[in-house]
Amino acid sequence: MATSYYLDGQTLYIGTVDGQVLQMGGTSDNGTAINWSIETKPFSEGDETVRKTINRLWVIADIEPGSSLYAAYATGTEGSTWNVVNSTTNGTGAIQSIRIPVIVNTPQIWYRLKLYGTGKVKIHRIIREVTGRNS
Q1: Can you tell me the distance from the alpha carbon of 62 to that of 111, in angstroms, rounded to the nearest whole number?
Q2: Which CATH architecture has domain 32-133?
Q3: For residues 26 and 10, what is the distance between their CA atoms, to the nearest angstrom?
Q4: In a structure prediction context, what are the per-residue pLDDT tens digits for the chain, which is 135 residues long?
Q5: Closest Cα partner for 133 from 112, 114, 105?
């Protein structure tokens, strides 16, 4: 539990109840790559009566060397059954902007997206290409 905060320029320090001083920021947690994730809200694309398929999901991101990015989707409005549809690890030694085409052909009314990985990844844009189907 945090008990005190100190901002020194661009560096934030946090004092904890057990006497630790933590430094916020950086690219690792004491030398270990940081795990991260984001889950979107459920999407119906504005029509809750038509089943849809995700034809393509474009994720435009800068993935630093040694970092990874995974893309997954889940159907419905809740639940935790994620279908991993793409994984990318950048080992080139340079930051790159990578477009990840993902094809998801499961017709559903609702679906959610999850992006997760390790290390430093900057997400610029997520583009969903969706087609409605009568069922």
Answers
A1: 25
A2: Sandwich (2.60)
A3: 11
A4: 789 999 888 788 999 999 999 888 777 777 888 899 999 999 888 888 888 887 788 888 888 888 899 999 888 888 778 988 888 887 676 767 777 777 777 788 888 999 999 988 888 888 888 887 765
A5: 105
Closest CA to 119 of 25, 26, 27: 27
Number of other residues whose CB lies within 10 A of the CB of residue 125: 10
The one-letter amino acid at 28: S
With a CB cutoff of 8 Å and minimum separation 6, the contacts of 76 are 42, 108, 110, 111, 112
Q: Could you tell me the residue ranges of all domains in the chain?
A: 1-29, 32-133
